[in-house]
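Sharing a chain and its predicted structure for anyone who wants a worked example. Both blocks are below, sequence first, tokens second.
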Amino acid sequence: MTEEVIVKPNILYVDDLKTNLVLFKATFERDYQIFIAESAEEALNILKKQKIQILITDQRMPVMAGTDLLEIVSSDFPEVRRFLLTAYTDFETVVEAVNKGHIHGYINKPIQPDEVRKSINNSLEVYYLREKNKLILSDLARVNQELSELDNIKTGILKIMSREIRTPLNRILGTIHLLKDKIESEELIQLINILDTSVSRLEHFSTMAEQISALKSGERKLKLKDTSLIQLIEYGLVETSDRMREKNIKVDFRHSEELNVMADYELLVSCFVSIMDHAIQHTGTAETIAVITCKENDKTIIEIVDTGKNYTEKRLEDLQQHFNKKAKQLDLNFGIELSLAQLIMELHNGTIGFHVKSQDAVTTQLTFGR
């Protein structure tokens, strides 16, 4: 009997220090197939020859910095999951990596092997799911080409497809059936991508609904610890980087000093990500969201400033009337994301406020300390 050959995922680590390369390979070669490169140029050559799943690059390298390498890889090898190796305090670099290289995460120095494995394995799950999705889309493109050539069997094939796609998409696919006679191959692929995004959003909303239920019932207890707002915001920006990339949105992250709050880190990240998602919805393509931290008297503040797109006058008025008053009930009419953010801030003795600075600037303010 022949033994089954286990194919290890390919990880590319880039660092100009040979000792770091040797140490990284020795630490992780049991778990992964490790490729190492001493420069960005060498890394790009490896990427052209090998199918790499994960790229981890140091920032400070001669000739080409890590962020510049990530930008090239994001464009030329978009399927590769990208990580930046950086220090906790190097927040400008992380923001640059989010904006230019669309990173999927960052790894703090010094490297903690268990944390790195966790980050890699989580990202590999996403990588392989997306690879499967690409195969499905490829099959759908092929089927649609056949449909365009064999118009008389369109209805039957689409019915078979609809039965095979999982239940949460059935109602959405009903709309596609109405448009099937007008769909061309490229349009069908775009619609399937929209469906994929819609399911992800449904799962996201389901998770948030569960969080709200657990918090309201008291099943989820706060785990308070001293939390750096810079580190929290950096992580939140990584979490929302894919959605910002879809609209080519940049981030302008400004802070005056290192600020900390006592917080449940996981919940506060959910809160920040929810507010960022709301800001992304109200920011135009290729525009910028400003994220600002500051201290006013005894209050610590995070401001997220979007560009005011897609608001109606009534929506802005309702947001200000509801969130800017001292006592308020949870109101799901404003969306589950804002409701979750409001509940989390209340549990942290904080508030959410909406302020219209100008026609092109709407500020969502998270204030800690009432």
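Comments welcome. The chain has 13 helices and twelve strands.
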